[in-house]
Design a protein that fits this description.
Length: about 425
């Protein structure tokens, strides 16, 4: 899990020496050889709950059986820790894992600029071709530096039983309908929406959706391409969010709630019937399945896309999404690319689909999806007019961090819609 953090930066120079010392002992990348001449590949991923950790563990074991000269050491970390500190610090310290999670867009551009990543085109061209256009977010200047194993869009995971209890007979297709449903749920004594604002990025994604549906496609392209935030729609997005927060749609204490850790997280609240819905990526069903007493995805769970905003310039059929990918460190052994190709093989992609953890990027593997909601998301993705990458991913580290900081301040009642855009504009001057 997608996922999308508030501070995706490397350690400050004052702590770089400490980070280097700590990470030198835990990453152990660059294909360390043991006394018997075997190559050890370290692999960091974000699977810590649900069925996916077991899938990756088995992948590592099976790859080692097929490649006796290789030892694969895979480790799962919480998404926020991985993206926010562990990977940036390891890269900055010069001792990254060989294979690691990457989220594409501006983040990949930054890593390529710093010469951290291995070009993959000459090593596994057929694997790159197999995922089609979904690989675009991990390409820089015509070269490929990461391959997504999952790609999907964000929407609302909701409890059908609680909707029925509140008298809601159909899912909302406009923002006004969503607001009306929030009122119905509150009147029925039900917490309408859970948000893990304690992890920052889930709060930021609310603004992303309002921006997506407030700004025209051309304006979105100008923003992500040249950091042009002059259109009033960017401020409108913040005002829309402020108005929505004003109807009190979220659970008590949402500013301190984690997103995916424990039964009390936003995902856990929905999974255990304590809130009606959560805005989250396509991976969320698998996460919820790991947070229930029986460790199963709730039968009441269903999904619908974020509704359009009537009268706004945004395309109601546009969707917001991203993928999870793996990249090889620049100095990793060639076996790292072989492991990545194995992970992306139709056989493994089908196992990923069967686990219910997300939507695989290899098209022939999508037939193995067993979760009805993931089938709906895959179909909705295919019908989208276009898919906008999560904005922090698209903008890159500096602008993305500034934007997310402004959004979280708005959630906390400490900032304005204009402040968000001002922070983005100021940060953009440092990277242009």
């Amino acid at each position: 899990m997608n996922r999308r953090s508030i501070t995706r930066v490397a350690a400050a120079l004052v702590t770089a020496g400490v980070a280097a010392g700590l990470l030198a002992g835990c990453a152990g990348g660059s294909g360390d050889d043991d006394a018997n001449g075997k190559v050890t590949i370290t692999w960091w991923h974000n699977a810590t709950s649900g069925p996916l950790p077991a899938v990756w563990e088995q992948v590592a074991k099976d790859f080692t059986k097929e490649h006796p000269n290789v030892i694969v050491k895979q480790t799962g970390y919480q998404n926020e820790d991985l993206q926010r500190t562990l990977i940036p610090n390891a890269l900055a310290a010069g001792d990254p894992p060989d294979l690691f999670q990457t989220w594409g867009g501006g983040e990949t551009r930054d890593q390529v600029k710093n010469d951290y990543l291995m070009p993959l085109d000459d090593l596994i061209p057929d694997t790159i071709k197999s995922v089609g256009a979904t690989v675009n977010g991990w390409q820089v200047d015509g070269k490929t530096y990461g391959i997504p194993y999952r790609f999907g869009i964000e929407g609302f995971w909701y409890n059908k039983d609680l909707f029925a209890q509140a008298g809601i007979t159909s899912t909302p297709t406009t923002l006004d309908e969503l607001k009306a449903d929030v009122t119905k749920l509150k009147d029925a004594g039900i917490t309408p929406i859970a948000v893990g604002a304690g992890d920052k990025w889930p709060a930021a994604h609310w603004w992303y959706q309002f921006a997506l549906h407030s700004c025209s496609p051309d304006t979105l392209k100008a923003g992500t391409g040249s950091f042009d935030f002059s259109d009033p729609c960017w401020v409108d997005a913040g005002n829309q969010l402020k108005d929505f927060i004003g109807i009190n749609p979220f659970q008590d204490g949402f500013l301190g709630t984690p997103a995916q850790t424990g039964a009390g997280s936003s995902a856990g609240l929905v999974a255990n019937g304590q809130a009606a819905m959560e805005l989250m990526g396509d991976w969320n069903a698998g996460v919820m399945g790991g947070l229930t007493p029986d460790q199963k995805v709730p039968s009441f769970l269903s999904w619908f896309p974020f509704p359009g905003i009537e009268g706004a310039a945004g395309d109601a059929n546009a969707q917001l999404g991203n993928g999870d990918a793996f990249a090889c460190a620049k100095n990793a052994p060639k076996e790292c690319a072989d492991l990545l190709a194995y992970i992306m093989s139709p056989e493994i992609q089908k196992k990923y689909a069967e686990s219910g953890s997300g939507i695989p990027t290899v098209p022939e593997a999508q037939s193995a999806l067993t979760d009805d909601n993931l089938k709906i998301i895959a179909d909705t993705t295919s019908k989208a007019s276009f898919v906008q990458l999560y904005f922090d991913t698209a903008f890159g580290t500096e602008v993305g961090n500034a934007m997310n900081e402004g959004i979280v301040n708005l959630f906390a009642g400490k900032g304005s819609a204009q402040d968000i855009v001002d922070k983005m504009t100021a940060a953009a001057k440092n990277v242009q």
